[in-house]
Structure prediction request, 141 residues.
Amino acid sequence: MEEKSNKIAIIVRNPSFDNLLFAINYASVSVASGLSTNMLFVGWAAEKLVDGKLNVVDVPLGYEGRKSWFEKRLKETGYNEIYKMLKEVKETGNLKIYICSSTSKIWEIPEKELAPEVDGVIGLTQFLLEEVMKAKKCIVL
Prediction:
């Protein structure tokens, strides 16, 4: 059996702020551990990569009454600017960020509107064959 490379693949599909926070934290830990990390944002999560939307705090359905508390806790703990966190991980050079091409079409997300940290639009098949199949682990959030 072929040995897997020193890569991690992360597929992000849930667009809630807490999920994106965890996805970026996983990427940060992976990169800090010396692993090349590739993230694919699909569905509603990809829309969060439109420039300026990543720091918008939203909460899952049923938790709206806790949004003010959550925003306060994020600020107190320093986790309120996940775009800044993503930029810092990206600056290491060991993180690649993509959005799914079919998501881009369905959600009408022009590449020019994506945050500058996004490496591009990629097909799901290409990501699966080139990144997931070569990765030690794949995390889906």
Observations:
- The chain has one domain: 7-140.
- The radius of gyration is 15 Å.
- Residues 16 and 136 are 26 Å apart (CA to CA).
